[in-house]
Amino acid sequence: MTERYFAPCPRGLEAVLAAELARIGAGDVAPADGGVGFAGDLALAWRANLESRIASRILWRVGGGACRDEHALYALVKAIDWKRHFAPSRTLRVDVAATRSPLPSLEFATLRVKDAVCDRLRDDTGTRPSVDKRAPDVRVAAYLTERDATIYVDTSGEPLFKRGWRRDAEEAPLRENLAAGLIALTGWAPGTPFLDPMCGSGTIAIEAALIAAGRAPGLARTFGFQKLAWFDGPAWQRMKQAARDREHAAPSAPAIFASDAAGGAVGKTLANLRAAKLDGFVAVEQADFLARSAPAAHGVLLANPPYGVRLADRDELARLYPLVGDALKQRFAGWTAYFFTGDLRLPKLIHLKVARKTPLFNGALECRLFEFPIVAGRHAPGA
Q1: From CA 39, how far away is CA 21, in angstroms rounded?
Q2: Rg over CA atoms, the chain
Q3: Domain containing 196: what range?
Q4: In the beta sheet, which residues pair with residue 40?
Q5: pTM exceeds cut of 0.90
Q6: Are strands 194-196 and 299-303 parallel, antiparallel or unpaired?
Q7: CA–CA separation, 40 vs 31, rounded Å?
Q8: Shortest CA distance to 54 belongs to which of 166, 195, 163, 153?
Q9: 346 vs 21, 225, 337, 370, CA distance in Å?
Q10: Residue 268: which CATH number?
């Protein structure tokens, strides 16, 4: 049976997510603004959750139709046979997003969707599910436009950037699925030297290591579909075992390198690599990028440099970028450098020729991924 799905992702990564989903086995792959629609059987939802490095969630379409007011929305949602999808003993959360919807309030729309789900389950089973906004068993999502509504069950649960290994409570400035998308945009493949010289807590290097290990990013976590009525535990365990069987052992000499000038950042990266059981895939050292040498004759460099909002930070960065350009020309000839930043002054200040710039978003912040092929030399003052 063919089901319809939608995988949201950070804006700007739709094309690389579409290619990834096609490799996983998705059919009818259709990139859209902010995500990718696709089709397949129910097992594809498990596989996409397990294997996708770039998606934020995997939403399963369960209903939809014309919707111009609250009564139509309630009727659409209540028409769905919810007991086929989950038991009323499961806790529930509803989320609603809209683009130019005529409904006056998202909060009111959310309440009507919740009422319709609960009323249908009470009519069919005699029991209403409880609402749990913090840690629900089942998440129902509705997307409203000026003409219609689409109703989804979220098969992921926690967002997919949560790989299951991170133990520190503080969220990294770069989410894991965005880091994986940046790597995909560079075209890097395992075996080619890879360096993050401003590694922070190691998110980019760890995503590269997951790729080099051939490890499915969702192996260490649970998913929302495990609480749905059609979940098949033994089949899921077989799928996970097949993914484990594809993993590679750590190489004798890592081709992935990470460094940072701050000792605390290096310590965090090492701890996170151990937590992810990937420490054998990455060589980590404390080094100032302006002084460090290239770890190989050629390779891919990907960095997410700090970009401050305060005026003092911006002035400091304006002094730093030309030095970064010098360091690249002096010691990284033969490499291709990629910088992901919200500071759109970077190409002008780094004094390097941009081969490609890709518009992206880190949350609500507009960013760019700048590509610089590095050739030897030093920029002329004022260039």
Answers
A1: 10
A2: 23
A3: 176-215+250-373
A4: 3
A5: yes
A6: parallel
A7: 16
A8: 163
A9: 33, 43, 13, 9
A10: 3.40.50.150
